[in-house]
Amino acid sequence: MLAPLEGYTDAALRTLCFRHGADLTFTEMAHVESFLRNNRLALEKIEAHDSTPVQIQLLTGREEELERFLAGFEPFPGFEGFNLNLSCPSPDVIRRGKGAAMIKRAAKTQRLVSAIKGHGYQASLKIRLGTNAYEKAQKVYLNALGGVDADLFVVHAKTAAQESVEGDDYSVFPECVEAARGRPVIANGGIDSAEKVRLLRGMGVAGVMIGRAALSSPAVFDELRNGLGLNDPVKRVPDVEELRGEYEALHASLGGRDDYRDNLLRVLGRRATTRY
Ligand SMILES: Cc1cc2nc3c(=O)[nH]c(=O)nc-3n(C[C@H](O)[C@H](O)[C@H](O)COP(=O)(O)O)c2cc1C
Hints:
Blueprint: H1 11-19, E1 25-26, E2 30-31, H2 32-36, H3 40-45, E3 54-59, H4 63-72, E4 79-86, H5 91-95, H6 106-118, E5 123-127, H7 133-137, H8 140-147, E6 152-156, H9 173-179, E7 185-188, H10 194-202, E8 207-209, H11 212-216, H12 220-228, H13 240-254, H14 258-267
Parallel strand pairs: 1-3, 2-3, 3-4, 4-5, 5-6, 6-7, 7-8
Helix pairs in contact: 1-13, 4-6, 6-8, 8-9, 10-12
The structure holds flavin mononucleotide.
């Protein structure tokens, strides 16, 4: 899966990654209240462009605003459900009771998931291991996995207090898989090689989500599939120049913001930078 990446994962990048092996993509985070205010920039993030499979990522802590949004939402081809962001580390978002602040609020999260499912849509969560080391030690993430009836859980194996340069703690995955009781757990954080995917699959995860490595090469999905023997026959992986041309053509045909295109073209082909 292609991770939600604010400033990057526009329709063109999502479709490029889908063409090169990602099964599912995500829109970048958007506050539900901004949709309700008819904020143009927020609404652009969830416009239909083509039928690339996509989940819409939402930031909310309030059932009533989510209900109001869902009541007016029109699904489109490729729409695969909603992802609740329980992972944003921004202090401002956490102070407002959203993003990573929601990890320890399983009952409230369940109500949000029920609202989504009540409208007949799939609901997934993207969580971290807590807002800080204390919450991680308390294993708050297991409550979210065990106490919320989501269709899929993405676990970014870090706390919100950890810098993007710090390593991810993959040792949590076996207990996450157990806590989720049969519902798929997707591993996220620093995944850039078939060896890491093999290790994580050995821990029982159902799949992986890739962020920064997909900015360096949107074809990383096929590269890893080839390495894991999942592409039969093995697929040719395009070079950076081909990927650049393909992205630019998609951006021109699907539409999108120039600053997002510029952001991507700046990092495409670079080694996955650790700070963004
Ligand atoms: C530039 C950037 C923007 C991001 N925007 C979002 C976002 O909108 N929603 C979200 O859930 N995570 C966001 N993330 C976190 C990623 O989805 C992912 O969890 C994180 O980068 C770890 O995966 P990676 O090591 O494969 O990059 C962002 C990360 C980066 C680097």
